Structure formats: structure tokens, C-alpha cells
Write the C-alpha cells for this entry.
Amino acid sequence: MASEEFSVREGELAVEPPPPTDAGLVFIGRIHTPWTSREETPRQGRQDGPVCRIEIFDPWVPGLKGLEDYRQVEVFYWLHRARRDLVLQNPRRDGDIRGVFALRSPVRPNPIGLSVAALVGIEGNVVLVRGLDCLDGTPLIDLKPDRCAYSPPKPGH
Amino acid sequence: MASEEFSVREGELAVEPPPPTDAGLVFIGRIHTPWTSREETPRQGRQDGPVCRIEIFDPWVPGLKGLEDYRQVEVFYWLHRARRDLVLQNPRRDGDIRGVFALRSPVRPNPIGLSVAALVGIEGNVVLVRGLDCLDGTPLIDLKPDRCAYSPPKPGH
């Protein structure tokens, strides 16, 4: 993997990024999926894909209260293995060079991944979902009700 | 604002969060909006709202190449004024207590905001969009083509 991570393809541009010290993240959980290498990880999650387990760490577990009211959840995770310096990329190795902000590549200045997953259930500190596309062990940084589905429940409902 | 930031409403739960040192973010730009206080900031952006300017910092500007092909863009930003410790919240002050992961509140362990904006144009290092709902001066952490609209363009198109 090392050679892949540090190579630059034809037409790509790597920059010297500033140090990533403007704000700090806390990992609030860990995502358990069936995929242990990039090669076997799907490019995009499918809502009929396998059930994955999102483990929430203390002290955040009470934050799940009420999530069961939603069918879809936005899952924000940290792509901890991605390089951060490629502003121009050649994703299909075909010379079609595109900027990082025109791609959903995991390689980006702040490698935050976002999937919309179908909520299957909640068991204690574990959220069961379908529709993820990340490696086993990926750090979790947030969960939110899907914006498409979100409307604040009325009092008493 | 200070009293609001440090007060806890009936039924809310503040925790002692771990230090946010698991990963570091770099601010890649700054968002310019008409809103300079929370009171005047819309709760949710509208795609017929005012044009806002997203300024991209060096060395990331080349990363905009190709973004003009998309009509909608996901804007990730850092809610730099939000507290991070409230796992149970009483958002409408009506006793309907909900966990942070069942809310799209800016108050969360990692205060990352996400809006889907309509792309109006790109002028040098500035991206013009409609549909934001953040304060003037908010730090930008990422831009991606909207997942709903995203399909990788074919070579030569």
C-alpha cells in the first residue's frame, strides 16, 4: 500500500499542506464492517448491503436517545489512511484530471467520509445500519438524522 | 452569548469530553454570508436564499477544477462557536429531551456543519453558492459534489 499512497499519477498535483492544527476531532466510536482491505471495500454503499455495526464510545452513548425515530442516518467518519495533499487527481488513470473538490475521493485536505445509511436497529451502545462503504475499524466522528428525512418531531411524538 | 453557551437547560446532560486530539483539521477557506449573529442566521438554508461567497485559501485553489460541472455542492464547515459537550439536549425548551445524534443541532462532539448549496459560479478562488445557513466568517473544511447528483463524468466530457 505504501507505494500507492506516496505515488503521484500523470497530471496529479501534490501540494505542501499547512499543518492540520486549526481544529481537533475526537473519535466518538468505531465502525465495524466486513471489509479489511481497500480492494474489497465497495466504492459506494448500498442500502441492501450487509449490516454493519457502529460502536459508540463513552461518554457519548446517551446521545443516541431518539435516533430510533429515523430511518436514515448520516454517518460521518474519518478516513484515517488517506493522504491529504493531492489537489489535482487522475482517478481513472485516463488523463481526465479533476480537482479534489470535484471528486468524492477519500483523498482530500480533510478526509471526512459521509454515507447515508439505513437504520436497522440500536442495541445498547451499538447502532446497526446498512449502506456503508468504509474499512473495518474506521473511526466515527458523527451521526445525524438524514437531512432529507429530517423534521423535528412534534412535542409528545 | 456567554451565558447561553455555558448554561444547561432542564433535562440536558453535559459530559466531560475527552480532549479533541484524535485527528486534526485544516481550514481550507472561509465562508462569507450576510449573517453576523446567530439570531439573524436562518435555521436551514434555502436554495433561493442570498448568494454567499466561499473563499478558498492557498494551496487548495487548483482543487476547484471541474467543480463547475455540478449544480449542487456539499459544503462542510466548522461550527467554531459551538460547545461540544451536550449529549442530551432540550432544543425547544419544552421537555422533549433528545440525544445529540437524533438532532442536527450545531452543538455536538465534532461540530461539523453540512449544507447542500446550489452552485452559482466560480470566480478565481471564490465559489458562489445559494443555500447556506452559517455565520459570516465560518471556516470551510471541505467541498464535494452532492452525492445525490454525483456521477463521475465520462472521459472527454
Summary: The radius of gyration of chain B is 17 Å. The first helix of chain B runs from residue 2 to 6. Residues 28-83+108-145 of chain B form a domain with the Elongation Factor Tu (Ef-tu); domain 3 fold (CATH 2.40.30.70).
